[in-house]
Amino acid sequence: MNLQPRTVTTPALRIVSRDQHIISRRNISKAALRVLYRLNEAGYAAYLVGGAVRDLLLGTQPKDFDVATNATPDEVKKLFRNCRLIGRRFRLAHVVFGPEIIEVATFRGLGDEDGEGDRHIVDGRIVRDNIWGSIEEDAVRRDFRINAMYYDISDFSVRDYVGGMQDLEDRVLRLIGDPETRYREDPVRMLRAVRLAAKLDLRIDAAAMAPFAALGPLLIEAAPARLFDESLKMFLGGHGVKSFHVLEQCGLLKFLFPATARALARGDQALRALVERGLENTDARVAEGKSVTPAFLFAVLLWGEVRDQAHLAIGQGADDNEAWARATDKVVTEQCQRVAIPRRFTFTMEEIWLLQPRFEQIQRKRVFRLMAHPRFRAAFDFLLLRADESMAMRELGQWWAHAQQLPQDVLASALPVSGGKAGDGAMPVVKSAPRRRRRAGGKSGSKPGST
Ligand code: ATP
Ligand code: MG
Questions:
Q1: N or C: which end of the chain has fewer CB within 10 A?
Q2: Domains annotated on the chain, with CATH
Q3: Ion ligand 2 residues within 5 Å by Cβ
Q4: Global pTM?
């Protein structure tokens, strides 16, 4: 399998010596350094590569450290006890240090155009790719120029084969090679462009942007599981708002989240506000190191379509519960054909949606039952995001925020045992708890809780 590396010309090779770049070993994880040194001492070439080099050059902390080497996966395995080989499409070594995994990839070659060797191309897409190559070949098969720089542990220089340094200076994202060919090989690269542009605040080069309109539909055939992973990276990576905007501006949203694109195209400003606020909250939580759940986020993205379909069916005379159940089911099924959201998340999304109409039922038993629901907190946070849908919805959010702060007996005595729905004029006025000061003339005096 170890083919002779083909020579590729990389006329742009620029070797940036240690005194001319800012990468310091202090900012590289100990685990990655150990892997690099060990490989190097055993006589192999060893480089830090990809996103880590790019991020270090930008002065930010990488989220993981990948290593590239001329040692084959089996040779890597022999050097490290804590090593396992993974992958079929790309065979890789994972060297495990407690919670940290250093991914070690053998230089990958370009192989034969006709798909011989261990590269298999189907309809222009790479389905298997285990041809080892030279560092030059490894560089040019990467996606963006800023992702093809190598930090050499033997002399601490950075090897820039395709002009990545220049792009970082120009703050632009350029593809290596012909954009159309590169997107056809792997349509997910279009989403990587969006994500990296958003995350690093880079402009997408006009040539890299141009094929989006024509090739965007290829995303429909991309593996839904991979699109789920990529969606999480876009929306839960701390740059969700920006990623969403870039995705929309690039015209790619409709291929990934057709229902969201449709609802937004109807000019639904409340949905836009909901999506933006949901993503802002998520970004803020990520920045604070708090946990975030994909379920809440996907519930936010798809809400407009779920709500509109449910209301449509109810307007046509369908039973409320049935209309909501059908709408959630339909939207989830459609979405999962594009982006494979695992069942445990779709289940939570459905719960969040199905609890929404129950916030409008202000009766004693129902209020307490809803508050005791395991998904109450998430559903309530969701309700608050819906504030822009109507004045009534904003008040409903405030009502529930306030109700939660009241002692149970005070709340119970304010609630009717039976009655109509919120918005029917049946919403009970809940008075402030005795300890709290009442705002003059204010009917509830509470502010919506933070999400
Ligand atoms: P992040 O900081 O989000 O991890 P990254 O660029 O490191 O961004 P990874 O998915 O970790 O993204 O990929 C590591 C490297 O592998 C990239 O920098 C790039 O060089 C290469 N790579 C990843 N995906 C592709 C792809 N689809 N096509 C070509 N090269 C890719
Ligand atoms: Mg990475």
A1: N
A2: 4-175 (3.30.460.10), 258-414 (1.10.3090.10)
A3: 51, 64
A4: 0.87
